[in-house]
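Problem: given the chain below (358 residues), write out its structure.
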Amino acid sequence: MAQNQNHHHRKHAHHPHASDSQPPYWALALRAKALRNAAVIGFQMHHYASPAAPSPTRTKWIDATLGDKQSKNTIRLDIYEPKVGGKGAKTGRPGMIVFHGGGFVLGHGTDDARWAAAANETLGAVVIAVSYRCAPENPFPVPVEDCASSIVHLAQNAKAYGVDPTKLFLSGFSAGGNLAFSSYLLLRSAAKWGYDLPCDPPSIRGIIVFYPLLDYSKSRPEKRDACANPEFTLAPSLTTLFDSSYLPPGIDLVDPRLSPGLVSDELLDTLPAVHMTLCEYDMLLAEGLDFQKRLEERGKVVSVRQVPGEKHAWDKPMPLYPKPSVKVEYDAALDVIKGYLSGNGSTSEFGSSIEVGI
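Solution.
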């Protein structure tokens, strides 16, 4: 009940940028382009570090089929296939859709190549990494709609991918973690926002996310100040670029497609099993823990691991070489998915909260 009151209390929160304080579009676009170029170089170095990250098995472009900015051959899918072995190895495999991070402004599906490779090897899963359209060129809700389009695409074409449509998972990092939840919620309540789906909402077995952004109703300074080590959080110049690019002026900040952590109890109850990996020195830690509490209170299957002494996106460059804790956390998340697949994905098995020391 307290949660519902909190939700209603926040329902009139709006993006605070007045038109005179919002940076002009051209300035946002220039900064975004420069940041994207730098990120490409950083990830190239990251991918070449030993062990080298794999390249996608193949790449496919699909249509954006939802919302006001529908477009042909717009969303890039990087597909990572597991090594084939044994009869029937190309049918009935789990499918994992991965949404990259980057503040809704930068990034590519290939950023999470090592996570894809781990899922290939450990689960025998086909991994589809989605490069959705980014802000400021495509602000909210376009990235959410693109991610939802990709989920519908995989569900409708599961056989062509050799995927069992009853074994679909969503995953994401940072902004991509937000999009994993937001796109799922969009599909579960499409009519509310005027979307016309070509099929029933696909069945999703679990949502596995790393350091997700879940609550836009709290300001960045508020989140930064609440962090155990504010100096370790993302720079204000960066988060201002991200938020100014992604959030249209006047947007309702508690829209669950934007702040999935504030979703109504009714819609929260539709969520599948959830696993979250959070970082101790991340301004997003508190909202992750708040969401965990909400899920537990509603009796949902949820497991959480907190990586001590680490910052947001600790698994991405730099440093050049992946930290040992990255493999530990990836393996732990994959073990949870194994439990979901075996039918043992209960809160009693995985625990509601696990803290790990690396």
